[in-house]
Amino acid sequence: MEDLKLDNILLTLDGHVKVADYGLCKEEMWFGQTTSTFCGTPEFMAPEILLEQRYGRAVDWWAFGVLTYEMLLGQSPFRGDDEDEIFDAILEDEPLYPITMPRDAVSILQKLLTRDPNRRLGSTKEDADEIKRQPFFKDVSWDDVVNKRIPPPYFPTINGSADTSNFDEEFTREQPTLTPVHGQLSARDQSEFNGFSCRSYQSSAIPL
């Protein structure tokens, strides 16, 4: 996934959740396979990404830990006034857990937010099965979750497919700016593509 965060968890009309925005995801990342792209949302990026190391699927379980922390406590485990401070916090700070937080919740968060990806919960071949067995989820029937048999605690109210009342006004107040359908590149912009095997049909062909 590489960009798991609250912004990408959406509610459907029937009250169940769906993960959205796969723009940064990598396909066929099986156990043992790694990549090295520096990408993601700062608060959710795993230490191995920040250290520019090769990384595998365990980065998603780190992000899941951050997401779970935010859902339980309403704040990020790693905070800062800018990206650099957030990155320093991810690499050096220990998340704080209220004394009132249930032990099972603290346990799974500590295991998910383990900086060493090889020791992080979910990093083995068992992947998600390792997470599902945690005491934190002891009352969850995963078969019921997958088949949407658990009654959702909240149903979004909308007045039609174009209703935007559930979106933040910060976004709905913005004036949309459309890219011209038949926009034409200037000669200067077109020159940036010199040397490519294909250019605009309006430009002269480049011999291969």
TrEMBL record:
MF term (GO), any? ATP binding
- Where does the AGC-kinase C-terminal domain lie? 138-208
UniProt keyword annotation of Membrane present:
no
InterPro entries referenced in this protein's UniProt entry, alphabetically? AGC-kinase_C, Kinase-like_dom_sf, Pkinase_C, Prot_kinase_dom
SMART domains linked to this entry: S_TK_X, S_TKc
Q: Which UniProt keywords apply?
A: ATP-binding, Kinase, Nucleotide-binding, Phosphoprotein, Serine/threonine-protein kinase, Transferase
Cited Gene3D superfamilies: Phosphorylase Kinase, domain 1 (3.30.200.20), Transferase(Phosphotransferase) domain 1 (1.10.510.10)
UniProt keyword Magnesium present: no
Please give the Pfam families that the UniProt record associates with this protein.
Pkinase (PF00069), Pkinase_C (PF00433)
Q: Using the record's annotation, list all stretches that form the Protein kinase domain.
A: 1-137
This protein's name:
Uncharacterized protein
- Native species: Collybiopsis confluens
